[in-house]
Amino acid sequence: MPLARAVQTGQNTAMGFAHTLGGTRYVFDDLKTLLARATPFRSGDALAGVAAGSAAERVAAQYALADLPLRHFLHEAVVPYEADDVTRLILDTHDATAFAPIAHMTVGALRDHLLDTPDTTALAPGLTPEMVAAVSKIMRVSDLIAVARKCQITTRFRNTIGLPGTLSIRLQPNHPTDDARGVAAGVLDGLLLGAGDAVIGVNPATDNIETVMRLLEMLDHIRTRFDIPTQSCVLSHITTTMVAMQRGAPVDLVFQSIGGTQGVNESFGVSLSLLAEAQDAAHALQRGGPNVMYFETGQGSALSANAHHGVDQQTLECRAYAVARRYAPLLVNSVVGFIGPEYLFDGKQILRAGLEDHMCGKLLGLPMGVDICYTNHAEADQDDMDALLTCLANAGVTYIMGVPGADDVMLAYQSTSFHDGLYARRITGKRAAPEFEGWMTRMGVGGDAPALHPALIGLA
Amino acid sequence: MSLSLRRFTDARVTLGRVGDAQPVAAHLAFQAAHAQARDAVWSALDIPALQAALPGAITVRSQARDRREYLLRPDLGRALAPCALPPAPGALVFVIADGLCATGVQSQAAALITAARPMLRLPIGPIIIAEQARVALGDAIGQAMGAAAIAMLIGERPGLSAQDSLGIYLTWAPRIGRTDAERNCISNIRPGGLSAPDAAAKLAWLLNAAQNLGTTGVALKDDMPATPLLP
User: Fold this and answer.
1) pLDDT by 10s per residue, chain B, length 231
2) How near does any CA of chain B get to the CA of A224, in Å?
3) Nearest CA to A290 among A123, A434, A154, A195?
């Protein structure tokens, strides 16, 4: 019988949850309230009106959450099953066999188990995003790092991403007018500093089909001219990419921003069936694989789209990962500090959220990267990003971004630079994806790299 | 490298390298640009100057009372403070909004509207100037005026290289509750990015297509022929 039939929808079973702390009894009406109140403070949950009212209430919720049996998550949905296709996806595809070894545990016991066990990878299909969100809420930063680094997730297109001992970099050579030579200059600068093994991925300034196709042709030309074992992507809306594929453009990866409820995905102009259709179209091109999808997510997107159902933003972020894993992506990253200070106000909130997103994505089986970033209206700076980068490098992050000088001149935010990528690999002793590493050696990257001459890609 | 890649882009390429880090000149240049961007977030519209350039423009405010509240409460930035707006049925209404940085709107909005005027088929309604405004404030304004479409000219988040960037969000049949998937966006309008005349041409193309389709957003594909962006 599908699990979903047994799911309670609407109001909770009756009693809710409670914990007494310091002589005060705190009551939480339902699962989504319990999860929200247990979440370490961030501005987005305050904006949504779901944050704990006091520090003591937060810890009381964490106690109550720690006592909650994992089985409960299969019987109470945070967003109603009937109303939301992401809830249906989560519950209808839950793997009871993978869940069996932890089926007797509470959230608190799962936390201790994850910290104690050497390998968590087999658990992924048995974990729901809400279970993973819950366990992260009773973890400290060091726990988020220690657990994440146990997860091994490997994916493949033209090279292999996520092997032990590797840290990959998305080369992000954006240009404000999508100028071909401007983008090419960014690509070459990144290649010369060892970036680009995750993907060479351009955010186009417009969704104009001709422009997107021109960028796709240009990136494919650079890749083939230099014979680089990597993949390219123009991060246009999925419907634009589908038109580009129909028109014969060289599309390696299909990109899309996704979220954790049906409503947020509708606000992005996508549905689960559309994602599947695009995945099929990309497979049909047979340019590489088996992993052909690239997704971005970020805490706060659901509230931004007014599609949050009173659920805290970190739980919704984990639900976006459940959407992502349905399509076996090559790459997934949170754009953690990009969504804005109304969701993550300062460096402290961004740091924790980045580590939560990474660990939760990994526990759910995703090749998780992080766009370690902030906008200029957030209370954050480069020091905060260095701290998050250092933590994530040690947490085994699958990939990070490489932006010239950390300054994205098109999207107007700051991410990590090519130099930051070198630093992260150096301090952790990690290397690029092996195929790309071999190419770097052949090309003399790090030295003169005479084969990577600008004139060969039209920069003369 | 024999040839500087900086000829081709304003991005921070060919910075050099000390160990794995950026040399001190590149480091300090970054710090200086970030400091300027931080200051730009707190810039405000010069309303008298805008009204002088666009006679008859009407000023409105969102419900966000100050910059900090604006940053923390985007819901208030989307809600219109009580005001009286004239009807503009069937018209395109331009809204000039501060958004996350007023500088680029201040310097480019009037020129952009002037450039767009002769290319537009729809009548143009009264021009609105909006303070502490988010994109969706245009829905409330458009609904109140009964406008056919809203073109929101709004200051974009300041970056390190550009603190004068303007975006246009075009929404057909604006009403409260429209999502961003129901809009078309033209971004990076600034000297060194998309020029105001090119942006005006793109706006006219999109508006024409929106009028034919009866909608904006993901259903309206920007299929405008690309113009050569290089000399």
Assistant:
1) 446 899 999 999 999 999 999 999 999 999 999 999 998 888 899 999 999 999 999 999 999 999 989 999 989 999 999 999 999 999 999 999 999 999 999 999 999 999 999 999 999 999 999 999 999 999 999 999 999 999 999 999 888 877 888 999 999 999 999 988 899 999 889 988 899 999 999 999 999 999 999 999 988 877 776 543 333
2) 20
3) A154
Q: Which domains does chain B have, with CATH numbers?
A: 47-213 (3.40.50.11240)
Q: Does B73 sit within 8 Å of A342, measured CB to CB?
A: yes
| Best residue in B179, B216, B220, B227 for a mutation probing chain A (most A CBs within 10 Å) | B179
B159 to chain A, minimum CA–CA distance in Å?
Answer: 4
Contacts of B163 (CB under 8 A, 6+ apart): B36, B37, B40, B101, B103, B104
B7, B10, B12, best to mutate vs chain A, most A CBs in 10 Å: B12
Residue A283 neighbours by CB under 8 Å, 6+ apart:
A289, A290, A292
Q: 3-state class of A357 per DSSP? A: helix
Calpha distance B155→B163 (Å, rounded): 9
Residue A210's Cβ-side half-sphere holds a number of Cα atoms within 13 Å equal to 9
Nearest residue of chain B to residue A410 (CA atoms): B188
What are the beta bridge partners of residue B170?
B151, B184
Chain-centre distance for alpha carbon B21: 35
Does the bond joining A290 to the residue before it have cis omega, within 30 degrees of 0? Answer: yes
Helix (H) or strand (E) holding B38: helix B24-41
Of B74, B194, B226, the CB nearest to A214: B226
Looking at residue B226, its pLDDT comes to 55
- CB B223 to CB A208 under 8 A? yes
The alpha-carbon gap from B131 to the nearest alpha carbon of chain A, in Å, equals 17
What average pLDDT does chain A have? 95
Distance of alpha carbon B157 from alpha carbon A303, whole angstroms? 20
pLDDT in tens, A82-125: 999 999 999 999 999 999 999 999 999 999 999 999 989 999 99
Whole-number Å distance between alpha carbons of A209 and B181: 17
Contact A21, A56 (CB under 8 A): yes
ipTM above 0.90?
yes
Tokens 């208030």 sit at which residue? B76
- Chain A residues with beta carbon closer than 8 angstroms to that of B164: none
A11 pLDDT above the threshold of 60: no
